[in-house]
Design goal:
Number of domains: 1
Shape: rod-shaped
Oligomer: single chain
Helix content: 55-70%
Distance between the termini: 51 Å
Structural class: alpha+beta
Number of helices: 1
Strand content: 5-15%
Largest sheet: 3 strands, antiparallel
Strand order of the largest sheet: 1-2-3
Radius of gyration: 20 Å
């Protein structure tokens, strides 16, 4: 494989790793959100409330 092929392969591998990292972060966020909701918390964009409607500063 020539230098161009090696660079292309390295770039593709780097992009794949980056995409996998983003996917894992999204799964973590989704799982954390589900866990909070299951625990009785109410979530609005940028805000978190307990089961009694009291906002929790995050």
């Amino acid at each position: 494989m020539d230098a161009r092929g090696l660079c292309t392969e390295a770039l593709a591998n780097g992009l794949n790793n980056y995409i996998q990292l983003i996917q894992r972060a999204a799964e973590y966020t989704l799982n954390r959100t589900k866990a909070l909701r299951n625990a009785g918390f109410f979530i609005l964009p940028g805000k978190l409330f307990d089961s009694q409607g009291i906002q929790i500063l995050v």
